[in-house]
Write a structure and sequence with these properties.
Layout: E1 9-16, E2 20-28, E3 34-42, H1 51-86, E4 87-88, E5 91-92
Antiparallel strand pairs: 1-2, 2-3, 4-5
Length: 98
């Protein structure tokens, strides 16, 4: 196992309206890359005690969206690597171990 360390940060921004809240989760990678997830939730009036629940829900949805973005990128990157490993000049160079 290599000892590659890095720091990724997530910033969450909330925008409150009278009946909804929007959350944006921005993941910044140490190589300069970024991923964004967005979540929305409908809430009662902002002064209501339940408005905090709406914020939590919007943030949870934004993080879920961010997770989906990361998983999609991983799947795409793995597909690209497997395709490169399997075919070089039309010759099979890698085989599945399954």
């Amino acid at each position: 196992m290599t000892d590659d360390t890095g720091k990724w940060t997530i910033d969450v921004a909330l925008q409150h309206g009278p009946y909804r809240v929007r959350a944006e989760a921005l993941l910044r990678l140490d190589d300069g890359g970024e991923f964004v997830g967005v979540g929305m939730a409908h809430i009662g009036l902002r002064e209501s005690s339940i408005s905090q629940v709406g914020s939590y829900l919007a943030v949870a949805r934004a993080l879920s969206d961010l997770t989906a973005e990361l998983l999609e990128t991983v799947a795409s990157d793995v597909d690209a690597e497997v395709s490169r490993a399997v075919e070089v000049d039309g010759i099979l160079t890698a085989q599945s171990t399954n």
